[in-house]
Amino acid sequence: MDNADAMAFVATDHGVVIKASDVSERRAVSIDADTESPSSDDEMLTPPVYNYARAISWSRSAEDVFNAFRIASNNAKLHRPVMIGATWMNSNRRNFIEPGNRKGNASEVNAYCRLPRYTVRSPWATGMFFRMFVASLLPLALQWATTGSAVIVVYLTPTVGLGCRSLGYLIYGALATVVWAMLVMSSILSHYAFSYSDRPRSYFSSTTLGLVKLASNLLRWGGKLVAIVNAIWIIAAGMLQFTDIYDNCYCNSSVLGRGAQYAYDIVLFDGVNLDQTRAAWFGALALAGSTSLGFIFYMSLLTDLVPI
What we know:
Elements: H1 2-6, E1 9-11, E2 17-19, H2 55-77, H3 106-113, H4 128-155, H5 164-195, H6 203-240, H7 249-252, H8 255-262, H9 275-302
Antiparallel strand pairs: 1-2
């Protein structure tokens, strides 16, 4: 947003184009904290952890900006100047628009970039759900690659099998995925309820929107509660690794995975083949490291930093 704000220009009532920062503190892209009825209470909170609540509305806003540039480009291709009643000035250079064709006051610029009146504006941005799928798939892959690596190391360490330690990591990964699903679904439902709240509706549709809003709030509150519990749990699970809590016959013999009938505890490692364990350790390290580096590399490709 900082790059977009630095490059923002506005048209004045006199037809002069100046930088937005010279007019006021309003910026091209910002969070409107004065909204009386946001789709979700989390939408007004600025920490990055609450970006999930703004993802859909931001996608809609990004498409609005895209449509403004698209309409302006189409008008330029049709040789329509911004100023009403003006004549298009041709240029001798290819793919170049004379500055005079772009001059106009604020209302003329607004009309020049506006969508036609008959256009039906969807509350959902084009391709938004596919982008949400990709944006969710990558963090989930990163989370389960790292959490799964920890599970593999503990699971394949003698006694091999599901035990207290590996179950603790599985619980953390599962709860983290549940939190993701709850918050994403909450943002979708809240945006749906907000988008259709100002339309004429019957008693049935009003009840439906009320239930959708209630479900959104319950998912939002429940997701944050589970996230807090999960954060406390993974810290506690890490601390338990360095205490004697897990150092007992039940946990060391992997009773959870092997069952009481086939569980056993290894007291001495003399003669025990640890090749599988070493391979699991190196494999888990490679899995977590490669996935983390791949995630960082992919995110660097998506980061478009324009020099200010």
